Amino acid sequence: MPLYKDQIIKIYNSLTGEKEVFKPITEGNIGMYVCGPTVYSNVHLGNVRTFMSFDVIFRYLTHLGFKVRYVRNITDAGHLENDADEGEDKISKKARLEQLEPMEVVQRYTVDFHNVLNTLNFLPPSIEPTATGHLIEQIEIIKMIIDNGFAYVVNGSVYFDVHKYNETHEYGVLSKRKLEDLINNSRELQGQSDKKNPQDFALWKKADSRHIMKWPSPWGDGFPGWHIECTAMSTKYLGEHFDIHGGGIDLKFPHHESEIAQNVAARGIAPVNYWVHTNMLQLNGQRMSKSTGNTVNPHELLSGNNTFFSKAYSPSVIRFFNAQSSYRSILDLTDDGLKASEKGYHRLMEAINTSDSLKASSTSTFNVSEWRQKCYDAMNDDFNSPILVAHLFEGAKLINQIKDNKASLTAEDLNLLKTTLHDFSFEVLGLVNETKEDSSADKLSGAVDILIKMRNEARQNKDFALSDKIRDELAEAGIQLKDSREGTTFTTN
Ligand code: AMP
Ligand code: ZN
């Protein structure tokens, strides 16, 4: 029986502002869409935080036995500067500045994105669609919206008619904004663009002569609006109505608000049951952001090559740091915070290493099943990873007490303790036991050092048969010895 049958999961739904019991549309199956990166520059750690939070959510739901279809797109066109409807496409701007083909820009930063995510031990999503690979679907939806009377065509562009939509529906259900407030706060003046009203947003934009990324459409050559891309890609793979849609909180308005309006206008149905928004990662008290330059990228944090932090931090320490805060809280990236996470991470890994050599007893002094359920309860409560980490520390403490003969567990309980720590640390939080890898590397190097010493002794005794045998058999095992004036070293292949 899948684990989820015994668990009640609650998710904070941004649409209702409440934690709700999670019930998938189809039992045992979950469709989840997360807005992916716009690939015009290297991802920064703020982007990584959002994607990592969804990686943990994906991991946990999969761990519970759900069949999750996780779709995370690549935005490779249509995202204009300042997330606006006017201005240059972020990717073609970069291509212009660096004298590259737009596709070179897309390729370069998609590769960077994947490298970063692999280094940080992300699971790949089930489907990673690109916006430019789904233009036909976008054009189809735009036609449906026009046919239903919620969009209009002007000079080769198509705009969503927010005012018309608001007569029968509510533009603002997600972001809790009122159209009147949007009208009052609008900086765009009437008549500045082709729009009937400044609140309308582009579904399709006519490409001017400078625009190099353009495609044919029933309305002429142009390119899609950013919001319609996600509507097309999410509903193509997850259906017109699916379970979870995620992204950073900054995408709530206008991006996600408009996705809802588009789906309702095209198909008469709100697309998503649970909207999940992650909060922002900050650096120096300010949101980490590409546009302001207040960023550190993952390579800089991993290599220590930056001006913000005292040292390099490993991939698992970065994951552990992220897990120590709720995805809904603002998180400050600080040296002290990272150092504390590094300590905590090592404490947990050392306890897991120690658990391998613990002996079972005839009685248990601790209720492991109850503790295990607390770990599930933490994650069931809107993926509360910091509480989970607190429980994992409790498990680590218990291991140290058993080692010091201050507590005991039966073989069955000991096993359950170990499995739970493994499941949550590695499968759910996606940590890697870097301490164990180090220690096996240390052990190998210790063993080879002994053989090098024996070979040196054999040479001194003029027992060249033995010294050659040691060298040759090590080489066969993939370990090459290298003699130099400073001594003998080895490399592995
Ligand atoms: P972008 O490539 O700018 O479209 O952003 C990709 C994702 O990263 C979106 O879901 C954003 O909401 C998210 N994001 C951007 N900045 C931050 C930040 N400082 N903290 C957390 N998430 C962020
Ligand atoms: Zn999106």
Number of helices: 16
Spatial arrangement of strands, main beta sheet: 4-3-9-10
Superfamily at the CATH H level of the largest domain? HUPs
- The count of domains is 3
Note poorly predicted spans.
none
**Helix/strand-derived class?**
alpha/beta
Q: Name the assembly state.
A: single chain
Q: Which geometry do the CA atoms define?
A: globular
Ligands, ions, cofactors: adenosine monophosphate, zinc ion
Percent strand = 5-15%
Q: What is the CATH topology assignment of the largest domain? A: Rossmann fold
The total count of strands amounts to 15
Distance between the terminal alpha carbons, to the nearest Å?
44 Å
Written description of the protein model:
The chain has 493 residues and is of the alpha/beta class. It folds into 3 domains: 3-278, 3-Layer(aba) Sandwich (Rossmann fold); 282-432, Isoleucyl-tRNA Synthetase, Domain 1 (Orthogonal Bundle); 435-492, no CATH class. Helices cover 46% and strands 14% of the residues. The chain has 16 helices and 15 strands. The chain has helices spanning 45-63, 90-98, 102-119, 135-147, 162-168, 179-185, 226-238, 252-267, 298-303, 315-323, 335-355, 368-380, 385-403, 411-428, 434-460, 464-476, and strands at 10-13, 18-21, 29-34, 67-72, 151-154, 157-160, 201-206, 222-224, 242-248, 272-278, 281-283, 286-287, 331-332, 479-484, 487-492. The strands form 5 sheets. The chain has a 4-stranded parallel beta sheet with strand order 4-3-9-10, sandwiched between helices. A 4-stranded antiparallel beta sheet has the order 5-6-7-8. A hairpin with a 4-residue loop joins strand 1 (10-13) and strand 2. Helix 1 (45-63) crosses helix 14 (411-428), helix 10 (315-323) crosses helix 11 (335-355) and helix 13 packs antiparallel against helix 14 (411-428). The chain starts with 9 loop residues before the first strand and ends with a strand. The relative contact order is 0.11. The mean pLDDT is 94. Bound molecules: adenosine monophosphate and zinc ion. Residues 35, 37-38, 46-47, 49-50, 247-248, 250-251, 278, 280-281, 287-289 line the site of adenosine monophosphate (AMP).
